[in-house]
Write a structure and sequence with these properties.
The protein is 21% helix and 23% strand. By secondary structure, it is an alpha+beta fold.
């Protein structure tokens, strides 16, 4: 998608602090972290949100989450995985993305 921020990051047009990358997905550190570990995982293919994505993409992203949390050392202590969808869900970029948050005890409700 032409003006999509995350598509531009995935293509390399906009630099990011990469944590993981392969042919299907990119994970990078959030520029406004809400926890000591705050990584965004995006598919390189554009989907507006999780409702638009196919099951294969979601399953693949899930498998990559497992790799990332292990590499970042938060697999045993725990983490929060968040997918915001739509205006009421506080989705700020209209490109499917998963927030991986960890490195501290997460509070409920979030915020």
């Amino acid at each position: 998608m032409e003006n999509c921020l995350f598509c531009r990051i995935a293509s390399g047009e906009i630099p990011s602090n990469k944590v993981y990358e392969d042919e299907k997905v990119l994970a990078f550190r959030d520029i406004d972290p809400q926890a000591p570990v705050h990584v965004l995982l995006i598919p390189k293919q554009h989907f507006n949100d999780i409702l638009e994505a196919d099951g294969e993409t979601i399953a693949y992203m899930h498998s990559v989450v497992k790799l990332i949390v292990k590499d970042l050392g938060i697999d045993e202590s725990g983490f929060r995985l968040v997918v915001n969808t739509g205006a009421d869900g506080m989705q700020s970029v209209k490109h499917l993305h998963m927030h991986i948050l960890g490195g501290r005890s997460m509070q409920w409700p979030p915020g």
